[in-house]
């Protein structure tokens, strides 16, 4: 905030010097309002009914878990089980399940009773751990459907109820969705950290700082002329805002990383023809994605495959060998390869170690890899790993084929020698590209987080620019509102619908 005109502004608010703040109302609440989890406030759509669903995966399996949530859960449990009394809370008990109408036995199952609010959803919940045969599962689901007040759950409805009852914040809900969809180790770690509330805690910490700054500004508005007001309250608010701006900007710069961790980094394999690019793609993806042949120019299109690369999710692209003076089809392949290179987060540059002096190798080194001393590092945040393939063709134990090259790895796709080293290098590179979920601050994994962080920063920008104390306080409130919305405060129904759509029925 520009504080040089403070005195005049303070006067203007008191109606002495101007009308700019005539409509301003005294702050209703000056004490710290922490942004603790309170639930969404709104009841989950359709809450009141008791819902049930199969919560474990579909298909034949050893054990299947069916659960209910809602006020009739206890009644449902009693209706299906013999003996009919409720088991002790949160203890597994073996019960005979039978159909409440026909009395037909359905299964011997472990049942659990979770009286609300100490349950996943915060409501009364019951779980039936039945044998996983399709007929058992459908029999128990039908039996539950025959209990009055029960209906099948919709996708994500259990989690939506947990959110509505303040059991999970929105970032934790997202963490849970990510955990269910996690396919790689890094994704699992990241999702678990988010589910554990790390991102939420970070936002709460930021919101607390804003609450303090706001309290200082409001105190000045109310008591600016009083002698007993601590010296420099506005300066304190300004320095709190400055620190926060730095922290938020740093996180925003890293936002792409978290998103890559959720959706996969773009790893593009490129190089001159016949270097072994397709062989490497097949080796890394452990399946025959691309045709491999001794004929240069075999790959002409971009071939994509999602892979787990050293624990990180990646979209691996095989591309046409880069060379000039070829027919129109291959030329188009080369154009597509170059286009894909532009979009890469990480380039796996492959050269034939036994053919480094060829014109296509030299050209690739000059144009894509950039030799040491030849120019600037890569412009954007794009990273590159240089791989010299076909090391088996080099004399055993011989000298490095080109010591003047940038740092590189020797590999043989044929024998697999050097693969572990490459995977380790990939792990390090991808930890840079996607962020390392084992260490460091929690990542912003969604555009939604990025949007609100940017909104918060914009509001702080207004705070700094305005000379009007009332507007400055309003900007701080706006900034805090953005942080609150990351964890779910005041979330609109549409946002909630989008987030809960990621869930399956039974979660
Ligand atoms: N000796 C040896 N041969 C290899 C190795 N890797 C690949 N090759 C052979 O090199 C030839 C070209 O391999 P590809 O994987 O098709 O090469 P590419 O770079 O995809 O080729 P284009 O698609 O034509 O650009 C094939 O005959 C492979 O068997 C290796 O590590 N050692
Ligand atoms: Mg190929």
From TrEMBL:
Q: What are its GO cellular component terms?
A: mitochondrion
The answer on whether this UniProt entry bears the keyword tRNA processing reads yes
Q: Which UniProt keywords apply?
A: GTP-binding, Hydrolase, Mitochondrion, Nucleotide-binding, Transit peptide, tRNA processing
Q: Where in the cell is it found?
A: Mitochondrion
* Annotated ranges, domain TrmE-type G: 264-431
According to the record, the residues making up region (Disordered) are 14-47
Q: Name one GO molecular function term.
A: GTPase activity
Q: Which domain of life is it from?
A: Eukaryota
Task: State where it is primarily located.
Answer: mitochondrion
Q: Note the SUPFAM superfamilies from the entry.
A: P-loop containing nucleoside triphosphate hydrolases, TrmE connector domain
State whether keyword GTP-binding applies.
yes
Q: Which cofactor does it need?
A: K(+)
What chemistry does it catalyse, as a reaction equation?
Answer: GTP + H2O = GDP + phosphate + H(+)
Please list the GO biological process terms of this entry. mitochondrial tRNA modification; tRNA methylation; tRNA wobble uridine modification
Concerning its family, UniProt says: Belongs to the TRAFAC class TrmE-Era-EngA-EngB-Septin-like GTPase superfamily. TrmE GTPase family.
Q: How does it assemble?
A: Homodimer; forms a dimer in the presence of potassium. Interacts with MTO1; forms the GTPBP3-MTO1 complex composed of homodimers of GTPBP3 and MTO1.
Known role: GTPase component of the GTPBP3-MTO1 complex that catalyzes the 5-taurinomethyluridine (taum(5)U) modification at the 34th wobble position (U34) of mitochondrial tRNAs (mt-tRNAs), which plays a role in mt-tRNA decoding and mitochondrial translation. Taum(5)U formation on mammalian mt-tRNA requires the presence of both GTPBP3-mediated GTPase activity and MTO1 catalytic activity.
Q: What is this protein called?
A: 5-taurinomethyluridine-[tRNA] synthase subunit GTPB3, mitochondrial
Q: Which organism is this protein's natural source?
A: Zalophus californianus
Q: What taxonomic classification does the UniProt entry list for its organism?
A: Eukaryota, Metazoa, Chordata, Craniata, Vertebrata
